[in-house]
Amino acid sequence: MSSESKLTVLVVGAGGNTGFLIATALLDANKYNTYILCRPGSQDKTRIVTLKARGAKVKLGDIINDTVEELEKNLIGVDVVVSAVSTSSMDGEKTLFQAAKNAGVQRVVPSDFGFMVPPGEILLSDMKRKLHSFIEELGVGYTFIEVGWWMDLVLPYPSNTTGILAQRSYTAGGTGKVKVAFTPRIDIGRFVAHIIADPRTLNQTVFCYSDQLTLDEVYDIANRVSGEDLRSKVTMWTKAQLAKQIEDARVAYEQAPSVMTIVGRVVPECYYYMYVRGHNTVEKAKELGALDARALYPDFQPLSTEEYAKLFYKELPDIFYSNV
Ligand SMILES: *[C@@H]1O[C@H](CO)[C@@H](O)[C@H](O)[C@H]1NC(C)=O
Ligand SMILES: *[C@@H]1O[C@H](CO)[C@@H](O)[C@H](O)[C@H]1NC(C)=O
Ligand SMILES: *[C@@H]1O[C@H](CO)[C@@H](O)[C@H](O)[C@H]1NC(C)=O
Known about the structure:
By secondary structure, the chain is α/β, with parallel strands linked by helices.
């Protein structure tokens, strides 16, 4: 394909965990002109340098500090904008999408990559929903991409690792017997590379998942592949414990709304939604109006939990947990 017939995509937040993997997958797909938006002064960060070496082109800009007009200049000629910025940059996303609309971008993808959930269950999803309404009112084409829960957060870390992510991986909830839709981050980018060029997904929500298993099934795989009894390290919070955590986190947020107290609500609210209610499934997502990415791309084989566990414990452990 000549570069003229390739879609031009700009990834925002490519220095972050998810954004880096999205930009990498777009470059691997070999069918996009891939640009990344990079804050002035961040050009020398390892991930940006890596992406540049692989063929990404850099535009300098900052969605928090730049005006709509400044961002607009960076968006001339861009077909698709994919945002993978963190929760604290949601206001900047509004500026970005306003600029995208002005510059004639065909499709924007906000930084969702989470649950498909009805209003009132998860604060963070409600905040993202407001951004969705903003995008719809702007009248720019969009695709909202959800991926269930990240498999990276579920496999228990090996017992000789420490740090906050390791600790988090030793918590879960419910009985372990309800199905949950999971996607490892490494596959989020591969799904995105399929979705953003597809006319069927324009102005739609798409639900991606690599595997749909119960926690019992996930921990069986983790024990077998790691060769350790990691399951016994996991605390399974009960329905009542999670309800109490949600209430406490809600009070803390109402007393002092901030990124920290918003994030404090994410884990108990998400655990309750998926592990107690059992609603983080592709069936529920379709009921709520999402397209099923697995049905759209039957030839694309995402990693199974078994395959991902092998990477996580055996083949690429350094990438996943050596520095936490
Ligand atoms: C944004 O602007 C503020 C105020 O000028 C400055 O302190 C901050 O460093 C800027 N942020 C970035 C990422 O450039
Ligand atoms: C998608 O939404 C945009 C903005 O509202 C609109 O211009 C476009 O026609 C829509 N396309 C489809 C296929 O729905
Ligand atoms: C944990 O143990 C494994 C297997 O013995 C070893 O390869 C790895 O380096 C250890 N990791 C840490 C963080 O000590």
